[in-house]
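Job type: complex structure
Entries:
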Amino acid sequence: MSHTLYIVGFGPGNYEHMTQKAIDVMKQVDVIVGYTTYVEIVKEYFPNQNYKTTPMRKETERCIFAIEEVEKGNDVALISSGDSGIYGMAGIALQLVQERKSNIQVEVVSGVTAASVAASVLGAPLMHDFAVISLSDLMTPLPLIMKRVECAAMGDMIVCFYNPRSKKRNDYIIEAAKKMLLHQKGSIPVGIVRHAGRPEEESFLTTLEELANFDAWKEEQKNKVDMFSMVIVGNSTTYVKDGKMITPRGYKIS
Amino acid sequence: MSHTLYIVGFGPGNYEHMTQKAIDVMKQVDVIVGYTTYVEIVKEYFPNQNYKTTPMRKETERCIFAIEEVEKGNDVALISSGDSGIYGMAGIALQLVQERKSNIQVEVVSGVTAASVAASVLGAPLMHDFAVISLSDLMTPLPLIMKRVECAAMGDMIVCFYNPRSKKRNDYIIEAAKKMLLHQKGSIPVGIVRHAGRPEEESFLTTLEELANFDAWKEEQKNKVDMFSMVIVGNSTTYVKDGKMITPRGYKIS
């Protein structure tokens, strides 16, 4: 009987944001494969499972290991945070299965993506059309990323920035904010959530103008924008009231 | 003690895509409030709960009812499919709570959004930056929607169309495809999933050029594009292989 490679998104990392399917799969498979940090998170909830960790940025090796385990007759969960189908492992895993002409079954198990959880922390910023853009240029040329940012702003779309800043990419968020300012007002609200849905979760609100001025922020505040953060820039109708960031959908409320 | 209004996204509608938190909340609240169709879905899993249904398009009334129930001392789940924070009830509920200066607690409980589930059915189309655009013009002027579609195509973003077609909006998907063709090739893959994640789920692949030619489709095929469908248009790198729609992220695979 053919065995299955489950490509599982486990959401932000706490048990309560996992889907029932992700939980069932992680409980039932023979091996759980993932990047060290992800395995540490999941191990807490499923301590008796077999785990295989591989280092960061070794995505190809990790997938091949997982595929080989399935070919040996195991059911395997290849895990990542958020939704495995959004900037996740689903793509490369499917590509490698096809390239090997492997006859294993593959199933992508969706999870709650970081934009959803960050939005729920901030209020309701995603009631309208939005763009999801990663500021990591490991896989995408920077000019294309910035073109997308500008196009999103031109269309007055809310923008969710994944991977907004790393040590090597200190300035991209500033450049992105400046691109948006070519089409949007500086007063547009910006919500920043770090470790959304995890115990260390913290969030704060700022504006697009302030984001463009990121260099002048205090170091402590700057540190809240990193690879664990989600930056959500509103559209022209987004506002902040009572600490909540809201993009109204247009219902008549009174 | 202050009671809580939970604004719950229950995902596509099957139990396995619900988050643990959504399940716990729906099991524990005093009342579950929702649009008739949503309540019918959820009732199957939590048959012993108290339900209050309100008709479609009565969003304001539904929210006020839910808020009043909380003010009376009940914990209430206001439910919707997908993620309550993406085109969901979170915005209007927060707006109404603020307008009433109600001191109830509000918690947005994220769910798996339709784009995630549709993507998992198709393969891995969302490995790269994407835009989420609703083709419903009930709340948004059509020219703004079409501007967003064109901007997304200009930025070579994948596009997820929510609410792609209704009886009254037969042509919007054609207009959207034509806008995209101003910037994208006709050969770009398009994946269409109806009832993603539900027992009736069906999906098929086409191209942007074919989508622009929607009028010439057979009636049976046309009917697969409606308010229960998600249309995902790839970017310039998206391809179809072995029936899977994949947008490569750029990892070196061999």
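Summary: Residues 169 and 182 of chain A are 22 Å apart (CA to CA). The first helix of chain A runs from residue 20 to 28.
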